[in-house]
Structure formats: structure tokens, C-alpha cells
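Quick illustration, no need to memorize.
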Amino acid sequence: MKIIIAPDSYKGSASSIEVSNAIERGIKDVFGDADIIKIPVADGGEGTVDALVLGTNGRYEEVEVIGPLGTNVLARYGILDEGIAVVEMAEASGLTLIDNEELNPLITTTYGTGQLIRAAMEKGIRKIYVGLGGSSTNDGGIGMAQALGVSFKDKYGNEVGYGGGELGKVEKINCSDIHPLLKETEIMVISDVQNPLCGINGASNIFGPQKGATKEMIEVLDNNLNHFGKKIKEYTGKDIIDIPGAGAAGGLGGGLIAFCDADIYSGIDKILDITNIDKHLEDTDLVITGEGKIDGQSIFGKVPVGVAKRAKKYNIPVIAIVGSVGEGGYKAYEHGIDGIVDIVDRPMTLEEAIDNATKLIERASANIMRIINMSKEFLK
């Protein structure tokens, strides 16, 4: 029996690699000779670098960069086959780098993400994927652009500072000193977010609260992004305000389009292409995927449904092992998922489920295999 394991991470409890390993252990408990291929997956957020490095036998590079609060942090990016790099903005500018009480999108910056892009280019890389999930920022990518040599001056001729609170001060943009290697480098954004830069469905209104923004802050941030978008159009000729995905990662999507000529791609589809999952699917018997919570949003670019759509091209059954099933989760049955298995097998607190996630995943995987084994015997 050949089985592909291709899950997302369980946010806050297990990485996609840890989930894959737990599922594998469960399979081996029942089918010790199973042919297993692990393809940990991500959708552009946390775990994107790990998923792609593992999926392509790549390697890591570590760089000291400026973190979201302006202090130095160590961040990794991946170098894949054929001189391709993957940068995960969460590594340099992510929510996990900040304590909850310090969250403040008025001051958090994407400068470190720009430094990772620069480091990859100076390493000789000319094709860079940038994953946009898990951001702590709402700065429209101004920090990223500053790290790459773009200048943003206020009305007094001073360079503006870090964070979304500074965008309203921008009066002049000068790209004359932008890093020369950008002209030779293809930047591809991986994101499952289709929100515009600003407005009711923009970066600030939709994602600001999870980054610590109050109602008053959201209004300031949204107005600042709108002002910034207009200045970008004035000085670069690029109108990014209403581009789907420009609002990803607090507007970093728009900044990458404006200053790096980036193209935005669906996170899960692009990652499945890079890992060449279709090649492995051709002679597979079963696919096991999963995520922390499957709900009504899972049909819109999330990992389990993205994996299932690929598997269905080959008529392969797909089972999703999930931490929980939220409202609308069973809609996934209409989009290629054949079975959904919740890992919580008895009454327990959320904290207990998180602490024991890999054990519960392994147990759920083994139970699935026992049912499959029993079915094989019963159907003889």
C-alpha cells in the first residue's frame, strides 16, 4: 500500500513535519510495510520554509535581521533545488516573535523580511518565493522596501520610521537606490489571502485585530494604507489599492507588487507544484491530509482541500485528520475530502488537546488504518 501524507500544521501545537511524522507512526503500527511518502504542506504561512525545504531536499540559511519590534532576531530562509529560495515573512516579521502584550501594528515592521530577500539575492538566488502568512505587521511593506534601498521621506525631508503608524507621513518616494539585483530576480508571493490593501475588506479591518489593533488603531491604519497606496501610484505609477492579495500580511503583498514587481499566487497550489506532488500521486492508494481546524473557510485555498483536489484527478481517496471540525467543516466533502477524522477521542480541555496533539494524531491515524485493514478482510 502506497500512502501520501500531506498535512498542514496544527497552529500552536504541531508543525506540518510533526503532524506528518505522527501520522506515519500510526500507519506503521498497523501496516509496517506501507510505502509512505511525506509531503508536509503549508499555504504560505508558518511552516512554508520547512515544508518546501523538506519537500525538495533543500537546505537552510540563517541570517540576523531586524525583527518586528526593531530588535535583532535570527531568521531562516530556504534554498531549494535549482537555485530557488523561499522566504517566510513570519520568520522575520511574524506574530510568534512578539509577546501578546507587545502586539502593536502601529510600530511593527517588515524590515527584516526585506533583509531576508536581500540576503537570498546576494547569495546568488534569482527566483524567490515569499510566504505571507502569520504577520504581525500592517506597514504596507514599507519596511521591506526600506531594507532593499527605497527611501520614504516626510514633508520635512526626513526618512519615516517603522510601522503602519508612519505611512501617513510619507510624502516622497525615491526608488533610485533600490537594490540592483532586484531587476534580475523573480519574486513570487505565496498567499491564500485575496483581500485588497484597504477598505472594509482590507488589511487593517480584517486582520488588524489579531495583531493587537484597537478600533481606533484600525481606522488610523486603514487611512494610512490608503494614503500610502496613493503615494505609490503617484511615484511608481502602480495602482495597488484594489489588487486582490495586496492586503496580505498587512499590505506586504501590495508592497512586494509595487517595489519588487512581484506576482501573487495561491499558496497551496504553488506549494503543491513546487513539491511536485502530482508525480507521487500517479500510483498512490491513499492520501492523508489534515489541519488544526477544518471549517467553512477550508474550501477557500486551505491545505486539505487543495491536496484533495489534486488527488481527485487520480481518483485517490482522501482522509483529513483534524484537530476539530468547525462550522461548515463538512462542506469539505463536496470538495474532494472523503473522510474527516477528529483527533479528540474523549472529553478534554483545549490545552490538553494542544499538549497531546501528536499523540492524538498518531492514535487517529492508527485507528483509520485498523478500519481499512478490517474493511479489506471483510470485503474479501
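DSSP finds 13 helices and 13 strands in the chain.
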